[in-house]
Queue: 2 jobs
Job 1
Amino acid sequence: MKIALLAGDGIGPEILREAVRVLDVLRSEGLGVETEEALVGGAAYDASGDPLPKATLDLAKSSDAVLFGAVGGPQYDTLPRDKRPEKAILGLRHECDFFANLRPANVFPELADASTLKAEVVSGLDIMIVRELTGDIYFGKPRGISGPKGDRVGFNTMHYTEPQIRRILHTGFKTARARGKRLCSVDKMNVLETSQLWRDIAEEIAPEYSDVALSHMLVDNCAMQLVRNPRQFDVIVTGNLFGDILSDEASMLTGSIGMLPSASLDARGKGLYEPIHGSAPDIAGRGLANPLAMILSMAMMFRYTFGRIDIAARIEKAVRAALAAGLRTADIAVKGIKPCATAEMGTAVAKAL
Ligand code: NAD
């Protein structure tokens, strides 16, 4: 198992260090894991003038999985777009063809009060959103702004090819098969042709997964159902634009951005694993960051890239044990309990493991 470690900027190095601490426990048991570090994002720009240097890209390509911290910071906001740290993530996704974004939204019972929704609505929530990453209105052509000032037109093209739709739907079905065996395909087929095609293909593929119950939902209804009764869902599969919005909405149901992992997979299961949050420059270097999203991203790596569901489950159990023992970083702290530091949380998870 070869893993590229790309820590990035801000809290990236702090949280990745804790994930490696957990990984070291597994190594000490004899697990054959090889890791190599490389610069990415602002750190890489500072060192070489490029947020995604060739050496970093080569390392990512030659590894089975990438553990990615976070990139970005206010000092880079005025750089030209192609030099900005965020360009590194887009570049990695594009170059490695990471087309499927998996984002779980789980509410650990210990943290049900962190949500802005009532605890009884979200407690025990465990859903997965599978979002397509390479197509849709973000990439379709023509696009642009044209016409004279005062009478300009802005336009984008929603565009999906059949192979793009097929492969993400297969990922959706397979993900549902490995979980609760229910897949909800979200589209806007009442107005959009791309969605009609999407729905037709979903129906066509469904018989290949007779053990998975397929349902369809319009995206506007889905946005509503996610706050009304989120536990009705198991796996949601959807396009790039709808997935962008719905996955952020779902993640906020949990109320704790520092807890949420994600995976971006290619067709063979190779993946980039990262927390959904950014580099949190406001708390960087102060030992305040919650490392659990990073650690849970590593659990996803064992589940989806290495097929080691046993190890993934052990890591997730260790996270729950640390929470059950009362440890809370500042972002998930409750009144009256002294928040713990990043390293304390990482150590507690490693110890529980
Ligand atoms: P952010 O996610 O970094 O931070 C939002 C808020 O959540 C901040 O108050 C932060 O302190 C808090 N937070 C985030 N992660 C936390 C953690 N693990 N523990 C405790 N608190 C945490 O979003 P932002 O402030 O909008 O963006 C900061 C930088 O990150 C920007 O440069 C942005 O472009 C970049 N960014 C990078 C990624 C990525 O690397 N994938 C994703 C989003 C944003």
Job 2
Amino acid sequence: MTTQPNHIREELLQDLSEKFRLHNQVPPDLYTRYRIKRGLRNADGTGVLVGASRLGNVHGYIVNEGEREPIEGRLTYRGYNVYDLIHGLEQENRFGFEEVGYLLMCGELPTRSQLSDFQHTIGLERALPDNFTEDMIMRAPSRDIMNKLAGATLALYSYDANPDATTVENIMRQGISLMAKFPVIISHAYQAKRRYFDGDSMFLHVPDPERSTAENILHLVRPDGQVADDEAKLLDRCLILHAEHGGGNNSSFTVRVTSSSGTDTYSAIAAAVSSLKGPRHGGANLRVVRQFDEMKANISNWTDEDEVAAYLRKIMDGEAGDGSGLIYGMGHAIYTLSDPRAVALKKAARPLAARKGFSAEMDLIELVEKLTPAIFREKKGIDKPMCANVDMYSGLVYKMLGLPKSLYTPLFATARIVGWMAHRLEEVTTGGKIIRPAYKPLGKPVRYVNLDDR
Ligand code: COA
């Protein structure tokens, strides 16, 4: 792949950037003076209430006499505790991501025949349009699968005979189709990246309409296409745990914002993919993996609590890690004592770690989870409970499944598409108003000066 030549001179960029810095300062005290809700957050860190939703409920504390009281985290989808959903699937030894998609998008769990009809329909919808892989993925491959996914989602607009209608039926149809196609798009985009950027062979397996989303992902990504049942079930649980997280998370809110303008499904979902890519959102799972790669390389005894604690202090001091002072995989805006997604993933990952020789790595992650809260209190002086978040264990799970790093965040998108579509349906049918907050104008009036007089 050749990239475009750059015609924009360095001096021009320096000049424009200097001017930008000169004219674009916002003094921090203005935010308090005008009571601006930065990041749409209240002063106590809770989110500004901007809507009502029947989808996911993220519960991490209770407010008692005006004080936040920490509790074990609870995540419900349409009222069903995610632990119960996973437990039920375990008992029946079934795949469940498609069922969770059905639940989120329409509001109730399917009967056996409804589920089988839904799964059959997804199977039929998996195939990409004729030549889509060749024209939209291989002709312009990308190093970054999230960018390719966003572009491919927008491109699907051209292949839809009724792309713009915002009836429930039409959005539901598009949701099922995107849910079916995302695994194929990310896998083919990954294969094109291998071929054009990494100098590896490309394997374009055909999706299997009879198999689940999780099985298809492993089949499409792996050169030999082979899938073990327990591995696919673990990936299925990962997809379920990433499927929805309320309307306030950055990408779901992006869907809400774009959908409120009346735009089409492909535009709204491409915007959500772009939001999820950011390292403060879905992209955090990659930071966790990098952090642990560095720790493993620099800590001689992974079970030595003192040595691990000393390294964590260095990360918080900005002397190790990416210099941000953050211990990735720890902390959450809402969860306090526990993030149920991390708890469920940890439990599901243990047996595979033992079987695949990753127990020592998993022990190190658990040790970081155990040691961080006290180090956080010591360094920050904040007496606030801190728990491992979902990203702490998702990277390890993907790694144990042999999935490449470049797919970690795209896998999040492949799961979250069902939550996004449910939020789009909810916004279009119940939102009723274009989302349009306000910004305090800081510009002062200036008189126009003719070009020759400047
Ligand atoms: N490591 C080090 N410091 C942390 C931290 C962590 N994991 N989590 C929070 N802090 C710090 C914050 O930077 C902040 O410091 P400051 O006051 O000097 O700016 C302070 O603790 C209070 O932060 P808090 O208000 O509790 O964070 P938040 O609720 O706004 O943000 C996260 C939550 C998830 C963004 C934050 O915990 C974080 O950045 N974690 C690491 C990244 C990560 O794993 N992200 C995935 C989230 S699912």
